[in-house]
Amino acid sequence: MSPHNLRHTYGTNLMEQSGDIHFLMTQLGHASTTTASLYTNPELEKAKKAAKQMDERRTNYLEKD
Question: What is the pTM of this model?
Fold first, then answer.
């Protein structure tokens, strides 16, 4: 767990709970709604994380050969 992961988890949870992008921007210090909007779709983040984990497993498997 890195500081970035903690911050991202906090931002995602805050957005899910509040639904207020301007509050999220204030809390995370973002100047742009574009940056803050990265926290509005946690399902996409979960899918990216799963894909990355699958790729890492595949890479590890291929390296064993």
Answer: 0.57
